[in-house]
């Protein structure tokens, strides 16, 4: 018994050391995966930034422009709503690693929901006006958030991180565009869910890194796939909206032409019919 106890005591430190090394190795791999994810996110972010900026100019030409005051007002409201809800969600866990885990779960649903407020609230407006206002609200939201982070990160001496936050402005617009594409297709709930998941997975690797490096690495692999999906979906989301706007204009033009025709006097309608009969008769008699 004494020999067995002695062997157990001698093996225990080795076992603990083995488990510690295993955990440290898993964390290191996770950290490397997160670093790779950040580099990919930076490259994708630049591309999404340029794509979204180009599409914003296109939508301004295709859809009726909006007052800047309205856009800024809705952007501030959305930001304050998101900030309040995130604060309430994190308050019970404030100062603990669990807070970052909770933030990774709620950041997407809260912020994407806040940006959709004008689309839901302005039901008396046309769907295209609501779409345009919501997209511009997302732009204002992203800008306000970027300014806040810029000030915070610069004060901490992290200039690179502060500059990186400018790219996230267009991520916010792209996420909202994906949500609104589904709304134009008939399901705002599906679009909201899709945008929320994409947004949360974008933020999750860095947030989870402070709580579990190994888990952050696994999530980073999924987040890379989501980034690729986002990059490939931006053009389609905006293109669908522009196409929707052009079809709406064409339908409106057809309705206006029909109303103009119906408002003609009976004599004008009769003359139009007689001219049509003469043309048909001429075509029949002149055929070989």
Keywords:
288 residues; mainly alpha; 9 helices; 0% strand; globular; disordered N terminus; disordered C terminus
Task: Write a brief caption for the model.
This protein has 288 residues and is mainly alpha-helical. Helix content is 89%, strand content 0%.
Plain-language structure description:
The protein is mainly alpha-helical and 288 residues long. The protein has helices spanning 2-62, 68-90, 98-115, 117-121, 127-155, 159-185, 188-209, 213-262, 266-285. The N and C termini lie far apart (119 Å). Mean pLDDT is 83; it is low at 3-8 and 275-288.
What characteristic shape results from the CA principal axes?
globular
Average residue-wise pLDDT: 83
Treating each run of at least 4 consecutive H or I residues as one helix, how many helices?
9
| Sheet with most strands | none
Order of helices and strands: HHHHHHHHH
Radius of gyration: 29 Å
The total count of strands amounts to 0
Q: Structural class from helices and strands? A: mainly alpha
Low-confidence stretches: 3-8, 275-288
Kindly give the count of domains.
1
Ends distance: 119 Å
Q: Helix coverage percent of residues? A: over 70%
Strand content: under 5%
């Amino acid at each position: 018994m004494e020999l067995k106890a002695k062997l157990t005591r001698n093996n225990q430190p080795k076992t603990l050391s083995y488990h510690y090394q295993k955990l440290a190795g898993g964390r290191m791999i996770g950290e490397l995966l997160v670093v790779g994810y950040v580099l990919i996110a930076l490259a994708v972010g630049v591309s999404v930034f340029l794509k979204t900026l180009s599409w914003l100019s296109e939508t301004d030409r295709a859809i009726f422009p909006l007052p800047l005051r309205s856009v800024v007002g809705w952007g501030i409201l959305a930001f304050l709503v998101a900030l309040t809800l995130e604060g309430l969600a994190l308050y019970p866990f404030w100062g603990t690693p669990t807070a970052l885990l909770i933030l990774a779960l709620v950041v997407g649903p809260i912020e994407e929901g806040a940006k959709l407020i004008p689309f839901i609230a302005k039901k008396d407006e046309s769907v295209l006006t609501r779409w345009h206002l919501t997209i511009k609200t997302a732009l204002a939201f992203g800008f306000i958030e970027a300014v806040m982070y810029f000030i915070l990160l610069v004060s901490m001496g992290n200039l690179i991180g502060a500059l990186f936050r400018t790219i996230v402005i267009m991520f916010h617009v792209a996420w909202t565009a994906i949500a609104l594409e589904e709304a134009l297709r008939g399901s705002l709930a599906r679009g909201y869910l899709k945008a929320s998941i994409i947004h949360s997975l974008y933020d999750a690797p860095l947030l989870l890194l402070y709580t579990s490096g190994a888990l952050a690495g696994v999530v980073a692999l999924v987040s890379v796939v989501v980034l690729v999906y986002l990059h490939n979906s931006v053009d389609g989301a905006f293109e669908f909206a522009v196409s929707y706007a052009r079809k709406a204009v064409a339908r409106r033009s057809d309705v206006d032409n029909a109303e103009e025709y119906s408002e003609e006097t009976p004599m004008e309608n009769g003359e139009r019919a007689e001219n049509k009969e003469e043309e048909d008769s001429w075509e029949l008699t002149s055929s070989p």
